[in-house]
From TrEMBL:
<dbReference type="GO" id="GO:0005886">
    <property type="term" value="C:plasma membrane"/>
</dbReference>
<feature type="transmembrane region" description="Helical">
    <location>
        <begin position="251"/>
        <end position="270"/>
    </location>
</feature>
<protein>
    <recommendedName>
        <fullName>Uracil permease</fullName>
    </recommendedName>
</protein>
<dbReference type="GO" id="GO:0015205">
    <property type="term" value="F:nucleobase transmembrane transporter activity"/>
</dbReference>
<keyword id="KW-1133">Transmembrane helix</keyword>
<feature type="transmembrane region" description="Helical">
    <location>
        <begin position="329"/>
        <end position="349"/>
    </location>
</feature>
<dbReference type="InterPro" id="IPR001248">
    <property type="entry name" value="Pur-cyt_permease"/>
</dbReference>
<feature type="transmembrane region" description="Helical">
    <location>
        <begin position="132"/>
        <end position="161"/>
    </location>
</feature>
<dbReference type="InterPro" id="IPR045225">
    <property type="entry name" value="Uracil/uridine/allantoin_perm"/>
</dbReference>
<feature type="transmembrane region" description="Helical">
    <location>
        <begin position="298"/>
        <end position="317"/>
    </location>
</feature>
<feature type="transmembrane region" description="Helical">
    <location>
        <begin position="181"/>
        <end position="200"/>
    </location>
</feature>
<dbReference type="Pfam" id="PF02133">
    <property type="entry name" value="Transp_cyt_pur"/>
</dbReference>
<comment type="similarity">
    <text>Belongs to the purine-cytosine permease (2.A.39) family.</text>
</comment>
<keyword id="KW-0472">Membrane</keyword>
<feature type="transmembrane region" description="Helical">
    <location>
        <begin position="50"/>
        <end position="71"/>
    </location>
</feature>
<feature type="transmembrane region" description="Helical">
    <location>
        <begin position="91"/>
        <end position="111"/>
    </location>
</feature>
<feature type="transmembrane region" description="Helical">
    <location>
        <begin position="24"/>
        <end position="43"/>
    </location>
</feature>
């Protein structure tokens, strides 16, 4: 956007290096970071209009960009005609590695979907919106990226893995029409990234931090803390090459898969859908979520760490270390391995070291589902949580 407004060679005018990146790239990051701060201020239910605008603008801009690139190239490039150079097990493992990268791309959404789905009026409205939109939108986004990169091979004689690099090259012809087109498509990209940043990063970080220190941290404050941390990790280093980016995604999912396994096991296997709302909002010693004197469920931490350890050797190999081939194969299935190990181990530990709040005596043999619909809008809690009464687990209406 800056190059479309001021000068095509604005990036070369700002020479030097800042924290491992160019001054121009750093300027873009700081501007985006600053403009993101006002969006963090608003609570989740009021920021929804940002996502409405994103849903309307971004698909139109993405499809327009794809058509522009195809017309400019006179076709979609060699991607659909290119024959694979690998076969057999190598082809299979390459497919699996690509699949893991796809899962890693929305591994964050798998975890923080409840931050938004809890505002849904019914269970079905939350389920169907995700079941339809996530596969379709991710597939469309990937398709646009692949075809634009393929078209760049014809236009420039080189394949650019980032569509934004291709968009920037359109400014070589610095006419008003190209400048306007690049500006508005780049604006749509920025709007898309802002929506993703707020939903997948700021709100989820803020929600988690409120659970750690609810007296001092709100969702808003947690979002601002997340924004401050983002300055310290130099995220532009992840985008120096396609290999850096895919390696980052794979390693990222290692940690998220282990968390997902614990959460899934706790709700669907151990507690069988049982949630006590009053217990969730108190640190009273009788709460089902107290676990011990310091309020920590050690079983979850053990399962989480083991879910990471199964992949850690393969991760070392992914960053250039010599490791056994078996560890590499396990790491190629990193999300599934981390999820399954943490899921099973948490259930086993919860069985042999039970805690208060498990509605069954044997999680391997007993059947039953204890989920009950809660009218949260009419949910009233006494300010004095010490007087809250703790009831017994509800009896299941049916077993299956």
């Amino acid at each position: 956007m800056l190059r479309a407004i001021f000068s095509n060679n604005l990036d070369s005018k700002l020479s030097g290096s800042i924290s491992g990146t160019t001054p121009f790239q750093y300027l873009g990051f700081i501007i985006f970071w600053t403009l993101s701060l006002p969006a963090i201020w608003f609570p989740p239910q009021t920021i929804r209009h940002l996502f409405t605008a994103k849903a309307a603008v971004v698909p139109i801009a993405g499809i327009a960009f794809l058509i522009w690139a195809i017309v400019k190239a006179g076709g979609i490039g060699p991607v659909v005609h290119q024959e694979t150079t690998i076969s057999g097990s190598k082809h299979g493992w390459a497919f699996i590695a690509s699949l893991m990268n796809c899962i890693a791309n929305f591994a964050t959404l798998i975890l923080n979907a409840p931050d938004f789905s809890r505002f849904a009026k019914t269970k079905k409205s939350s389920f169907w919106s995700q079941a339809i939109s996530i596969p379709f939108c991710f597939a469309l986004t990937s398709l646009i990226g692949i075809l634009v990169s393929s078209a760049s091979t014809i236009i420039y004689g080189r394949t650019y893995w980032s569509p934004l690099d291709v968009l920037g090259l359109f400014l070589e012809n610095y006419k008003s029409g190209n400048r306007a087109g690049v500006f508005f498509i780049a604006f749509a990209f920025a709007l898309a990234q802002l929506g993703t940043n707020i939903s997948a990063n700021s709100l989820s970080a803020g929600t988690d931090m409120t659970a750690l220190l609810p007296r001092y941290i709100s969702i808003r404050r947690g979002g601002f803390i997340c924004a401050a941390i983002s300055l310290c990790i130099c995220p532009w280093n992840f985008f120096k090459s396609s290999n850096n980016f895919t390696s980052y995604l794979s390693s990222y999912s290692v940690f998220l898969s282990a968390i997902s396994g614990v959460v899934f096991s706790d709700y669907f296997w151990v507690r069988r859908g049982l949630l006590k709302l009053l217990h969730l909002y108190t640190g009273d010693k009788n709460s089902d979520y107290r676990f011990n004197k310091i309020g920590v469920n050690w079983r979850a931490y053990v399962a989480y760490i083991c879910g990471i350890l199964i992949n850690i050797v393969g991760f070392a190999g992914d960053v250039g270390q010599d490791v056994p081939i078996g560890a590499t194969y396990i790491y190629r299935l990193n999300y599934f391995c981390g999820f399954i190990i943490s899921f099973v181990l948490y259930g086993v530990l919860s069985h042999f070291f039970p805690f208060q709040g498990i509605p069954i005596s044997n999680i391997f043999k007993d059947k039953g589902w204890f989920q009950e619909w809660q009218e949260v809008d009419d949910f009233e809690v006494s300010k004095d949580l010490s007087v809250v009464e703790y009831g017994e687990a509800p009896k299941p209406e049916k077993s299956f």
